[in-house]
Amino acid sequence: MTTFDPISLEIMWSRLINITEECWVTILRTAFSTIIGEAQDFGCEILDAGANSIAHSPRSMPSFNLTLPRAVQEILTAIPPETLAEGDVLVTNDPWVCAGHLFDVAVVTPVFRRGTLVGLVGSIAHCSDIGGTKASGRAREIYDEGLQIPPLRLYRAGRLNDDLAAMIRRNVRHSAMVWGDIQAQVASNHVGSERLLAFMDEYGLDSLAPLAHEVQRRAELAMRQAIAAVPDGTYRSEVRFRIATWDLTLPCAVIVAGDELTVDWTGAPPELPMGGVNCTYSYASAHTTYALKSILTPEIPSNAGCFRPLHVRAPEGSVLNCRYPAAVNQRTMVGWYCGPAIFRALAPVLPRQVQAFTGLPVPCTAYGRTADGRLFNDHIMFGGGQGASHHGDGTAALMYPTSAGNVPVEMFEARTALLVERKELIPDSGGPGRHRGGLGQRMVLRKLYDDGLPVLVNVLTHGENSPIGGLLGGAEGAGPGLEIAGGTATGRDEPSALVELRAASDAITVWSAGGSGFGDPRARPDELVERDLAEGYVTEAGLAAYGRDHARRARAGQAAPGP
């Protein structure tokens, strides 16, 4: 079967996507850690025999949809396809070939039908720990950051590689949790492999190649048509932000030429000597093309075809294309600014398709032991306010640019010796605009017991002291921050802070940024301003940004003569 009528193609394409969704649900239900099982920091994909993406779960982490195919291609360079056998499972966490830092582990299973390799099923997931220092902001090279796993066989013809398994377990703090999460990925791949073979049997497919070619061709055509609708030219912007003591500028040039588009990051700062904020090319490229996909063809399911007309240039040795062995564990501190720079560059020509800057998520990792001696190493992540757009206000508490979820307070408390005293939206944190940015969140985290045992919390306040203005007249949202009451902290002048809490009175207050606004705030309709005031999203003091004085109008209304 080499040709497909539109209805059959739609059904088969959807079936493949549903298989990846079943893989995704398998990991969600069997993972051990909060970072995977609650925050959903993982992704699942089906690839053809050449390691080109065919389909991925709609709930996959967007950057993983783009880094996994690159990782599989590199794995197959190290472990040639002709050497593979049924039952093999491959693994790597190399940041230069995978997802940009050691926490993200790729697990890939080749799928054989009648002895022939027909495709691969894979996942990337952020494991809860990979060894290395807890004070990630002090790392100077990747050797400080944990266990490096080059492309290797985790299983060989169905048999576990016991030596590699022992190496992984010995080099992580909570081996049962980390190994459980990796086995969740193996189980997910097994489910995907079985479903893929059953799908091929049902449709009488001896090869996935014709179907893969067709869905990739159509996705590529849609992307080329979307690019061709943008006037040719070079569109420029820059985003400035601060990390620790470094003031950084990302200059962005979006070059549109016919049905091809290139993003050029020439001029990006050189890689930084410590702090782990450098991006590998794989990671920077993923966040660049993800932003473009969101703008240009959001309605088309993603696969390798979407990205063929897109090209990314980043100077080698820069923060967007660092050289081995640079430290990279906190690469989100830089990489999450790629999308905002692209949106800003394209705002004048695509104002209906971009969004203003979104307040970045705040990850907190807690390490310690409970009073009964149980080890914990768990995450709580919460989002900032989404940037506003032509279409409306930004959503509060969104984990963009990830697809992760805000970790439930109850799950975090049940697994650690910490109490979340408060978690709330922050009034006036959304950037004013014709459409308002979404609100950020504030969380108060306290040590639960006076048991004399220390609890360490590593906090990444993305975007601290880095206001990013809105689009087309909109203003920036309120920034993130961290306050410490009673504990001790190291690294406040570094990319992340490591806080030690010992007494039950020790606490931290951490908050995420609000989203930036879109359009002139004075053009915001009165009824929306009044609604925000009534719902507590905007206070009396915040009305001035909209050119309003609610109290004055209220007094004028009370003083108006009666009939």
N→C terminal distance: 80 Å
The share of residues in helices is 25-40%
The biggest sheet amounts to: 7 strands, antiparallel
Spans where pLDDT lies below 50 across 5 or more residues: 558-563
- Given helix and strand content, the structural type is alpha+beta
Q: Helix tally?
A: 12
Major β-sheet strand ordering: 2-1-5-4-3-6-7
Q: What is the rounded Rg? A: 24 Å
Determine the strand fraction and express it as a percent band.
Answer: 15-25%
Molecular shape: globular
Number of strands: 20
Residue-averaged pLDDT, rounded?
Answer: 95
Count structural domains: 2
In words, what does this structure look like?
This protein has a 7-stranded antiparallel β-sheet with strand order 2-1-5-4-3-6-7, sandwiched between helices. It has helices at residues 6-30, 34-37, 62-78, 162-170, 175-203, 209-228, 281-296, 332-335, 338-346, 409-415, 526-535, 550-559; strands at 42-48, 53-56, 89-92, 104-113, 116-126, 152-156, 159-160, 233-243, 246-257, 260-264, 310-313, 362-369, 375-382, 418-425, 441-447, 455-459, 481-485, 488-490, 497-501, 507-511. The model is unreliable at 558-563 (pLDDT under 50). Strand 1 and strand 2 (53-56) form a beta hairpin. It has 2 domains: 6-221, no CATH class; 355-563, no CATH class. It is of the alpha+beta class and 563 residues long.
